[in-house]
Design brief:
Length: 268
């Protein structure tokens, strides 16, 4: 059975229907890796036109439970893309100043300008995820945010930003393995945090919060993708493929050639 990635707007997502270990037609890493490399090459070419044309921007939102692979996705998918036209923003616990503003204030500032690809490592969705799971604001406040987020994203889309949102979906077993690997490998110890273990206790609440965010905020202008992420190589293939597809749809062109380019003499 094929597993869809795109969440059709208006549908209710039940994550139990999705297999985090799904790998589609790919049984092995090698073929998927080759296909991912092709996507990355294509992405490099598309980014060049995006940059040259300066008309659109692409915003990629990455969300996942801890150890879900946000960092790895950025590393493998954005590899080779011209750093000048790419901007990664990681959203942490809000600072005092950020908390003194509305929750979208810091987000809006990080939206990529025309010509750029922007990657959000965590995002405004934390404001209906961690905030909801830990009761950081009353329910009446976070309940309003789904509509607010949809409107905000629609405004961005109307202004030339293509938005792609990816939920990197790993299984609870895979998360355990990744935490254990971080503990066993001294080179990965730094990635481990006791708070990740504490968050794991809230697994079911996070899943419920994700199901609501995916169901209520997958829109025609900013669709959610559920990416099977237990296999890193498949995850990278899916994300890079969706980015290529979205950029190809933009029908971008290099600015027209100079009419008299052949008549301009460059002085010696
Ligand atoms: P990391 O991505 O591992 O560096 O961790 C960043 C931490 O910041 C995570 O524990 C997030 O849950 C937390 N975080 C991000 N955005 C928010 C937010 N809006 N409110 C509260 N915590 C947040
Ligand atoms: Mg972390």
């Amino acid at each position: 059975m094929t597993q869809p990635f795109l969440v059709p707007p208006g549908t209710h997502v039940n994550l139990a229907d999705y297999d985090p270990g799904y790998t589609g037609d790919y049984e092995k890493k090698s073929a998927a890796k080759a296909a991912r490399k092709d996507n990355v090459k294509r992405l490099q070419a598309l980014q060049e036109v995006l940059w040259a044309e300066g008309k659109h921007s692409l915003l990629v939102v990455l969300q996942a439970l801890d150890a879900g692979g946000k960092d790895g996705t950025i590393k493998h998918v954005m590899r080779g893309v011209n750093p000048q036209g790419c901007q990664v923003t990681s959203f942490k616990v809000p600072t005092e100043e950020e908390l003194a503003h509305d929750y979208l204030w810091r987000i809006h500032q990080a939206v990529p300008r025309r010509g750029y690809i922007g990657i959000f490592n965590r995002s405004h969705y934390e404001d209906v995820l961690v905030v909801r799971v830990h009761n950081l604001v009353p329910e009446s406040v976070w309940q309003q945010r789904y509509d607010e987020i949809n409107h905000f994203e629609e405004m961005l889309a109307d202004n030339g930003t293509t938005i792609l949102k990816f939920f990197l979906y790993i299984s609870k077993d895979e998360q355990k393995e990744r935490f254990e690997e971080r503990l066993q490998d001294p080179k990965k110890n730094w990635k481990f945090s006791m708070s990740d273990v504490r968050e794991r206790d809230h697994w079911d609440e996070y899943i419920a919060a994700y199901e609501d965010a995916l169901s209520r905020c997958s829109t025609p202008w900013a669709p959610w993708h559920i990416v099977p992420a237990d296999h890193k190589w498949y995850r990278n293939l899916v994300v890079s493929g969706a980015m290529v597809q979205a950029l190809e749809k933009l029908d971008m062109h290099f600015p027209p050639p100079l009419p008299d380019a052949d008549q301009i003499a460059i002085p010696d």
